[in-house]
């Protein structure tokens, strides 16, 4: 009998439960009014005298072990109930946290930066509030030059010399003023134009400017660089440089890429031609080099400028430029990315 009681002590010590019903069953089995311990105590009178002492000890041990176990598990249950009461169930899995996503303009901008940094271009930035010199005059657009009308400008009313930059070409001026050739830089940034907002144009948008100045830089280098970019960015390997005019480059060209005419969308966005314009470019005008303190007899260079929104719209088939600025999460959430 003593051995049997010792076995029960082992069972009590090993007992564990998360469940109230099981704990109650345990209590009834050992400590209940018809429980085992009661039975053993009743048995005490039948135990031979020489065993009474040991029998009494083990049975008391069983009783205290069972009582302690019951108490400690009950306390555990109660402490859990308390935390549930105040904070809700702390053991529940957490609500999923909403992770934001990068803005499509930032994604495309970073992609462009990656592509050019692979061929040795660094990134430069300049102020969005510019002066006349950096936005216009140094770029071969003196006061009253008719080409200033190509870009409708927001001026700061109290000071006509200060304006919101109309293009990131202003950054190339700043960069040339502060750095000596060889120069290989791209300048992404926000620009502003006083234009009516529609699905195709906005008064705020982004550009990436590129500038390469060194000895013997040629138009062929420009074309090759742009071809490399279009292959990497769009997977298209045909471009066309269409003669154009910009005051800061000579000769100047518009950059067209051959998009193709496979789908209905291709027809729509290329107006049935298969060609799409993505920006302007040219050989930096010697006057601009001089204005920025670079010897135009020794150095030549090319420059280009592209609209980031336009590229993002092409890549992601976005039909309305205003979507970039409306901050509609249903739109923005679609651009989850690790870049
Ligand atoms: N700044 C021009 C614009 O905003 C774009 C541009 C054209 C930039 C030709 C250039 C360039 O650097 O060479 O329309």
UniProtKB/TrEMBL annotation:
Q: Give the catalysed reaction(s), semicolon-separated.
A: tRNA(Phe) + L-phenylalanine + ATP = L-phenylalanyl-tRNA(Phe) + AMP + diphosphate + H(+)
- A single GO molecular function term of this UniProt record: phenylalanine-tRNA ligase activity
Q: What are its E.C. numbers?
A: 6.1.1.20
Q: Supply one GO BP term.
A: phenylalanyl-tRNA aminoacylation
Report the cofactors: Mg(2+)
| Keywords associated with the record | Aminoacyl-tRNA synthetase, ATP-binding, Cytoplasm, Ligase, Magnesium, Metal-binding, Nucleotide-binding, Protein biosynthesis
Q: Name one Pfam family in it.
A: Phe_tRNA-synt_N
Residues that hold Mg(2+) according to the record: 250
Top class in the EC scheme: ligase
The record's remark on the cofactor is: Binds 2 magnesium ions per tetramer.
Is the Nucleotide-binding keyword given for this protein? yes
One GO cellular component from the entry? cytoplasm
State where the protein is found.
Answer: Cytoplasm
Stored InterPro entries: aa-tRNA-synth_II (IPR006195), aa-tRNA-synth_II/BPL/LPL (IPR045864), Phe-tRNA-synth_IIc_asu (IPR004529), Phe-tRNA_ligase_II_N (IPR004188), Phe_tRNA_ligase_alpha1_bac (IPR022911), Phenylalanyl-tRNA_Synthase (IPR002319), tRNA-bd_arm (IPR010978)
Identify the domain of life.
Bacteria
Domain Aminoacyl-transfer RNA synthetases class-II family profile stretches: 108-326
Subunit note: Tetramer of two alpha and two beta subunits.
The record's HAMAP family line, in alphabetical order, gives:
Phe_tRNA_synth_alpha1
In its UniProt entry, what is this protein called?
Answer: Phenylalanine--tRNA ligase alpha subunit
- Its gene name is pheS
